[in-house]
C-alpha cells in the first residue's frame, strides 16, 4: 500500500524522524485554517500518488493563510496524470540550505534490504545514479543485524554528506530503519532530506510503501487505506478473501493458482490480438477453493461492466473440477437475469468427468465448454469481440 505524502509525514513523526509542521485539508476553508495555525509561509501540495506534481502546478507557495486558501482552491479538483486531487497538504515552509536523499527499500533480487544515501537530493535518484554515481551510497542491510550507529555513520560518509550534518543524518537513518521495521514497510524514502538555514536536518517530502501481506500485524494500517481510490470490485474481492486485480480488458479470467492464472492471461492476450480484446482481470480462486469461492469470484467478474465474456480455466487438484462446476451453476442461479455474459469453461484434472457432467446437465445457455486452454481462450476472445 502506497501512502499519501501527508500520511508518510505523520508516520515519520510518530517514529521520531524530524519533520516540519503539516496538515491535510479537503477544502479551501480547511487549508486556510491549517495555514493560520502554522503562521507564516506555507506550501500547498496536491496529494496524489504520482510524481510530477510540481510541473503540473500541484505544488504552490502561499504567503499567508488567505493565500493558502486561494492556492488550495486552484489545486483541489485538478487532474495530475489521471489522478483527481481530492486533498492537499499544508506544509510549513522553511529556508532550505541543502537537499539530500535517503531511502530504505526491500531488495528482492539480493533477498535483503538496501539503504541508498546521497548528498544530491531533490531530484530523481536514477538521475544521480546515472550522472554522479560517486555521490550515491548503496549499502545492503542484513535483516537480522539491522543498522547500528556505526554502520549508519559509515553509510552517511559514503554518501558524501558534509561533516557538519553527518551526525544528524545518521540519526535520521537509524530512526527511519526503526520505522521501516516496525511498520513492515517495503519502501521508505525521504527526498529531499534538507538542511535548513538554522542547521537542522528535516524530512521535507517522503514516500512510504507498506507490505499488504503484513496487514494482519497492523490493524491501524486499515485507517490509511484510500477507499475513495480503491476499485469497488477489488474492495469486494478483498472482503471475500479473493486475489483479484482489475485490468483494462474485456475478457474476465478465473483460474486456480497464480501460475495458471498468469498463463491464462498470456494466452487470452495472444488470442485477443485478432479480436482487439484483452484480459479484464486477474482472479485466483486458490488451490482449495470451494463452490462458494467459485460463486463469489464469478459474481465479482460478472459485475464488471467492462467484461464481455468470461474464461474459467481450472486444473483440478485440491480444487476438484466438480466443486468448480457446482460453483459456476450456483453463481448463475444466484445472479439470475443479472448474468448476461457468456462463460467459456475449460476443466481438466481431478474429477474432470464429473465436473463436465454437472455443467452439461445444467444446460445453461451462457456456458460453453472446451477441452483445451488455447481453444477456450480463442473462443472467449471471439465472444468478447461481439
TrEMBL record:
Keywords: ATP-binding, Ligase, Magnesium, Metal-binding, Nucleotide-binding, Tricarboxylic acid cycle. Residues 9-229 form the ATP-grasp domain. GO terms for cellular component: cytosol; succinate-CoA ligase complex. GO terms for biological process: succinyl-CoA metabolic process; tricarboxylic acid cycle. InterPro entries: ATP-grasp (IPR011761), ATP-grasp_succ-CoA_synth-type (IPR013650), ATP_grasp_subdomain_1 (IPR013815), Succ-CoA_synthase_bsu_CS (IPR017866), SUCC_ACL_C (IPR005811), Succ_CoA_ligase-like_bsu (IPR005809), Succinyl-CoA_synth-like (IPR016102). It holds the Pfam family Ligase_CoA. Its cofactor is Mg(2+). Transmembrane segments: none annotated. One of its GO terms (molecular function) is succinate-CoA ligase (ADP-forming) activity. PANTHER family: SUCCINATE--COA LIGASE [GDP-FORMING] SUBUNIT BETA, MITOCHONDRIAL, SUCCINYL-COA SYNTHETASE BETA CHAIN. This is Unannotated protein. It comes from freshwater metagenome.
